[in-house]
From TrEMBL:
Organism the protein comes from: Paenibacillus borealis
Any Pfam family: Abhydrolase_2
Top-rank lineage group of the source organism: Bacteria
Signal peptide: none
Lineage of origin: Bacteria, Bacillati, Bacillota, Bacilli, Bacillales
SUPFAM superfamilies in the cross-refs: alpha/beta-Hydrolases
Listed InterPro entries: AB_hydrolase_fold, LYPA1-2/EST-like, PLipase/COase/thioEstase
Identification of the protein by name: Esterase
GO molecular function, one term: hydrolase activity
Family: Belongs to the AB hydrolase superfamily. AB hydrolase 2 family.
Keyword terms: Hydrolase
């Protein structure tokens, strides 16, 4: 199949023949691109396959995965299509590259975080974990989508205390919802606006390393 999305892939330098690797698939924010996300996870590039997915809709000098009616209000048809296409992309990438299907992680910022959390809820245990930075879960996803259990999906969610795009109240509401879905939730606030601080980055990098190690031992 030809994927809907353009993407960057970074394979571990010392790739071993026949070995399957954990993967981190990154989803960028509105108006950004896949290359802006790589720096967040570059320290893991020796042990993980890293794939940056570019939104398929041009927005200024950047891209997006879907458009909005208003802030926090996705155009439903476009959002639904993005979720379907991203699920298909994850399967495509797993078949094309030496990816361990039991160790698939999504990492998204803003619009990418919204999609990462939605995909966790629609794919369930097909994903090992997600990192959702400064996002939320649309109400229609919670009430109208066909959702799977995420009780065994690891989730790291964070939010800026001074987020001027999605107020911190939204972060707390998101965490409260996720707490009801999985015991494997880490939720943190950082004294930032709508962005990712160095402390935030170090925390989720350590979280991914620990979670992948835990799952390796379990497996």
């Amino acid at each position: 199949m030809n994927p809907t999305y353009q993407y960057d892939v970074h394979l571990p330098v010392n790739l071993e023949e026949g070995k399957k690797y954990p993967v981190i698939i990154t989803l960028h924010g509105k108006g950004s691109n896949e290359r802006n996300m790589f720096g967040l996870v570059a320290p893991l590039a020796a042990d993980f396959i890293i794939i940056g997915v570019r939104g398929n809709l041009q927005l200024g000098s950047g891209y997006q995965y879907y458009d909005l009616k208003s802030l926090g209000n996705p155009i439903r048809e476009m959002f639904d299509q993005a979720v379907t296409d991203l699920e298909a992309f994850i399967q495509y990438a797993t078949e094309k590259y030496p990816i361990d299907p039991d160790k698939r992680y999504l990492l998204g910022f803003s619009q990418g975080a919204i999609l990462s959390m939605t995909l966790a809820l629609t794919m369930g245990e097909q994903l090992k974990g997600i990192v959702a930075l400064n996002g939320y879960i649309p109400d229609f996803v919670k009430t109208e989508y066909s959702l799977r259990s995420i009780k065994d999906v690891s989730v790291f969610a964070s939010h800026g205390e001074y987020d001027s795009v999605f107020p911190v109240r939204i972060g707390h509401e998101t965490a409260s919802y996720l707490e009801g879905q999985t015991e494997r939730l880490t939720f943190k606030l950082y004294p930032t606006d709508h962005g990712v601080s160095e402390e935030n980055q170090l925390d989720f990098l350590n979280w991914i390393k620990q979670d992948a190690k835990f799952n390796t031992n379990k497996g």
